Every structure is written in structure tokens, then in C-alpha cells.
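Entry, Tuesday afternoon. Goal for today is a structural model of the target with flavin-adenine dinucleotide bound, before we commit to ordering more compound. Inputs were pasted exactly as handed over by J.K., no edits. I checked the ligand SMILES twice against the vendor sheet because last time a stereocentre got dropped in transcription.
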Amino acid sequence: MDLTYTAEEESFRARLRAWLSEVLPKLPPKPAAADWPGRRAYDTAWQRMLYDAGYAGLHWPADAGGRGATPTQHLIFLEETERAGAPYVGANFVGLLHAGPTVAAEGTAEQRARWLPPILRGEEIWCQGFSEPAAGSDLAALRTKAVRDGDFYVVSGSKLWTSHAEVADWCELLVRTNPGAPRHRGISWLAMPMDAPGITVRPLRTLAGSTEFAEVFLDEVRVPVANRVGAENDGWRVTMVTLSFERGTAFVGEVVACHRVLAALARTARGNGRWDDAVLRRRLGRLAAEFAALWRLTQWNVSAAQAGGGVPGVGGSVFKLRYSHARQELYDAAAEVLGAGALDADHEWVADRLSSLSYTIAAGTSQIQRNIVAERILGLPKGR
Amino acid sequence: MDFQLSEDQRALRTGVRELLAGRFPTERLRAAVAAYEAAGDGPVLDRGLWRELAGAGFFSLLLPEAAGGTGLGPQEAVLVMEEAGRALLPGPLVAGVLLAGAVDGAATGERIAGLCDATAAPVLWDHPADCDEVIVVGADAAHRYAAGELRTAAVRSVDPLTPLARLLDGPSGAPYAVDVGRLRRDAALLTAAQQLGGAVRALEAAVAYARQREQFGAPIGSFQAVKHLCAEMLVRVEVARSAVYAASVTGDPVEVAGAKLLADEAATGNARDCLQVHGGTGFTWEADVHLALKRAWLRAAAWQTVADGTETLAEALTDGHIVL
Ligand SMILES: Cc1cc2nc3c(=O)[nH]c(=O)nc-3n(C[C@H](O)[C@H](O)[C@H](O)COP(=O)(O)OP(=O)(O)OC[C@H]3O[C@@H](n4cnc5c(N)ncnc54)[C@H](O)[C@@H]3O)c2cc1C
């Protein structure tokens, strides 16, 4: 076991640091949280800067326009950008982490040439249209139907919780193309242009008051058959392939950030006297162990990916279960440090406390993750 | 960076696992429990087994090669202690590893060394009748004693594999020159490694039982309430494993403190959940479940309590000590 980085990895880090310190001061001011067009412009401008410097699609394979970086380099990239206070992936999330990798793995040469470069250059934003009103944890229950009409699919139905739908150019859409087939075998993956007629986006307010996601109504939207990635009715498998791109790096930046928040909580508690409360102090001490261990678990998973070429999605389930819970505990502790200040919704930690509540729900609830861990790692029998 | 076991380390772990499965199977575990119940205040350890462990290199893990050691280091010591914890192997193992160079005959298993934390209250000494020599570690100095030199009071140990006595004397023995901070750190790390192994054992036992025991016409492991307990047990193991292994690589005292804390949580939490999964059987003396829980409690109290560990970590948060 070796936790030191190689000379090559360190020089990658040094070059990145130098570049970050040069470009970050040139960033435009951060837009307000509710200013979606502003956020899109900001996120895509950052993506363009990454592209110009050769850091776009770091973890994508070289033949998809990526840099083919090792998992460890990707870890270093995420760690350093977080430390330097660089923007998050933001609106580029689905393009860079879901739709793009899916197209890279399963798309035709034409499809790759059409969709991948604009993602890397920060020109096009994607959203993910998977969940529906009656298909959440049970995604395979999705009903949005696509009926073939010549060179088009005519798509009708509705999608729910679609993040960034308001600003997206494309939607990676799961549709039912064969209602008669077994559930997992009648689904197809389509790239739907968000400006097609028949699409209505209705923003939903989150409990934090923001509009992070939306309901998307589809009324006879015509999507070219050429926009289907993978074979008809093979969309479930196509979608699952994307998971193999997860190399244990999903939460690198966030874990680094949580450690910084924790240190700030300790400083604040010292300043306002709450540090004298042994219960609170020890709670923060325990969280320090927790986040240090989550960082080591990240390095463990990344090293496994580097050695074996990919972390099975289930390793990610173990991490996500613990991390999503730890993040909520962190902000509950923050509330205790703040005292009555925790009722001020404009305080950064209070806003983060609210958003942390989605972590045990989004991208597979904790209950679903536990099912996955118990059945796929521990081999316990499937049940109800 | 390559935070994975090397080929050699994997082989070592497999080798130790096989060795312990052969020399300390469940029957010997139960025999050890019976020995304790029969012994009264007498010795309980199987000296033959102790010498076999020494012969396999258990107690020369941290000795330099020049002193007859294996030339291995803390990483390997942690892997061996994890397997010992998984087997619920009794005896002053931490003392065996850490005092191999200090106590004559300890490395070969001819004599048994003990280690005792004098900052705990009360001060408890494990395996008092088995030790030939003991080193008592205070806050910043250590003293050594021959067997029989210390006055003790009997304590009926909660762990039927670990006899205990309460020390009555203050520090009066010969000073033992040692870096006390380092010794404490290493003792905490090796104890944490055993806790990790104990947590793995409890997980494996729970999953095996959940697959086999049927109620309502189905294996209980098909019920989500049981399944989710098992999933959380695995999560505790993996988090503790990352922390313990990393601490063995860096040797950072704050990282060791965190590793001990999380390994204690994993060992005690998993043993309790294992008991719950076993139902009434888990509450019996006959099932091994209680042995893992009691050993976990014993180790959680050794070398770093929850209060000490969390205070150490809290302090590190404010003095800018950053692990990542
Ligand atoms: C902030 C946020 C952003 C999101 N962004 C997107 C997006 O961009 N695109 C997209 O497609 N989706 C998105 N989602 C949707 C997300 O994937 C779903 O919310 C999630 O999969 C859960 O589905 P659901 O909300 O329908 O809850 P349900 O599936 O209805 O679950 C309700 C409760 O029942 C439990 N439950 C359900 N099934 C089981 C079971 N088998 N065993 C035990 N418990 C069970 C769940 O754990 C949960 O506690 C987002 C969600 C959030 C919160």
C-alpha cells in the first residue's frame, strides 16, 4: 500500500495548480443561485477554459476526445480544483458524467462526432430524463412511450425531477418502445433536442426554495430514429454501461469540501464559545474521523479502479451510503454550532443543510443502495 | 499512489487466515472458553499454540531483520492482527508484537509479555496469570515488572476469553525506556486492526445465518429489515478498513485515533447487529455471537476510549492538522 503520489502524478498536480492560480482570478463573478441563464453561461465558460487548457473530459477515453487520464490523475484534478475554489461541474454534469460517457461507449461514429465535442467545449448542456411520476426507485416501470413513425419516434409522457431541464439543449431520455416486452427489454435510449415542439418544462421548487429540477411534459414530440443510441429496446443495458465509467471519483471534491467546512465549524465554535460543550466538540471530532476515512476509502476505490480498470457500481454504493449520511450529519452539527443562527436561511451552511437532504434520495435512495449492497455484494436472497 | 494490498500482502493475509483456520478453529475457541471457566485465577493460554504463532512470525512482525525479525512493517502487522481478530484469537497479542524486542523470549513465544495501560481507571491487566513479564504504560513513562511482582485484585472479566486483574500498585518497577507516545499509537493501531477483524467476523456470521435461517417460509436474509442491517455492517467494515490500513501506512497519530474510533464502532456495532440477526440463539452462551461482542467491548476500552479519540480528533481540527 502506498499513499504517496508518483513524480509523474505530482508534476500533473503542479501544472494544474499553476494553471488554476493563473485562470481563476479571471473568472467572471458567480451568478446568483436563481439566475439560471447566468449559471449556464458561467458553467459553460468554465468548461471552455478547461477545454482550452486540455483538461476537458479528463477521464474520458482518448478516442472519445477525452484525455484518457488515469483514475489517480482524475482524483488529483478533482481534489485540486476543489481546493482552489474552482467552479463545480454544475450544468455540465449530465453531459460529462452520464450522457457523454454513454454516447462514447455505445454511440455510432456519427453520434460521437455530433454530440461529444460540444459537451467537451461547453457548448451544449444535457439533462437526464429517466425518472417519472410512477417510476422512481423502480426505474424500469417507466411509461413514457415512443411510437415509430418512419424515421421518427413520436414520444408522449412525462418526466419528473429533471435537473437543469430549463437550460438544457439535449435530454438523455429513456422511453418505452415495446410495451409488450418484459419491462427491462422494452426500453430505448434517445437523445431528445429540448427545443423540439411538444416539450413543456415546468420548474419545480425544491424545499430550499430554488428551482433545481423540473417536470417535463412530452406531447407527441418527434425525435429522429437516428438519435437512438444502441439498439431498439436495448436502452436498459445501454444506460447501465454508463455506470462502468464511475471510477470511485464521484464525490472527491465534496469530501475535500466537507473537511474544509468541518475545520471552519471548529473555528466558529471556538469563537462563539460552543467549543466548551464536550458533546458538540466530540461530535465534530468524530466527523473528522469520518471524513478522513471517506477520503481514504476514495483513494482505495480509485486505486482499485487503476489496478483493475473499473470499480463495479456496487463499490460506489458502499461509499454513497456512508457519505450521504455523513454529509447530513455534518450540516446538522453546523446547525448546532450556529445556534439560533441556523434559522437564517441565507447562511451558507443553512442552505447547504437544506440541500444535503437530497443526498439520501437522489441517484438511488439509501434504501435502494442497501438492497444493492446486500444482494449484489453479500449475496443475500432477493425478496420484498 | 497505489492504495491496495500488494501481491505479497494478499498472500500473507491468505496464509495467516489458513493458519488460524487450521490451528484455532471453532472447537479450540470453545475449548479456550472452557479453559477460562475452569481456570479460576490460573493461566488460560495454550503455550503450545503461542509458540506456534511465534514460529509463524506473529511476534517478529515489527522486529528488524538484524534482530531476527521478518523485516515487515506496520502494514503487515495490521493485516496479521486483523486475521487474529477475525479468529477471535485470545492472548496479549499487541504486547507480543510490540514487546518482542524488549522482553526476552517474547519473539519466540517462549515467554509471554503483557502490556497494561496505567492511564485507564481502573487499571486492568489482561491475562495476568499467563504473563511472564509486564510493562505498565503511564501517560509519559513506562515501567517493567516480573510476574508476581505486582499486587492485583481479582476481576471477573466480561470477556470469557480474556481474564483480567486490577492493578493495585502505582509505578514502582524498573523504568522501561521507550517512546511512550509511539507505543500508545502502535498499541491503538494494532488494537484497531483486531477490531476490524472482529467486525468482519460478525458480518460473515450474520450473513451466513441470514441465508440459512428460515421464517415465514423464506430465508430471513430476504427480509429487508435484516438485509439492511447486513448492508450497514459491510459499510462499517469498508470504512474502518480504509481508515486502519491508511493509518498503518502513514503512522500519523491523528489518523490512528480516527482509525481506532471507527474500528471500535465497526466491531461493537457489527457484533450487536449480528446478535440481533441471530434472534434468541444470539442471546445464548452456546452461540459464538456474544464472544465477538464482549471482545469488541474489551478492545474498545483498550488504548483509546471513544472520549479520548474524539477529543484528540477535535483538537486536531483546530490546530490545522489535516489528514487529507
Ligand atoms: C435533487 C434531485 C435531483 C434529481 N435529478 C434527477 C434527474 O436529473 N433526472 C432523473 O431522471 N431523476 C432525477 N432525480 C430523481 C431520483 O433519481 C429519484 O428521486 C429517486 O430515484 C427516488 O425515486 P422517487 O423520488 O420516485 O422515490 P420512490 O421510489 O417513490 O421512493 C419513496 C421511498 O420509498 C423507498 N423505496 C422505494 N422502493 C423501495 C424498495 N424496493 N425497497 C425499500 N425502499 C424502497 C425509497 O427508499 C424512498 O424512501 C433527482 C432527485 C433529486 C432529489
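The radius of gyration of chain A is 22 Å.
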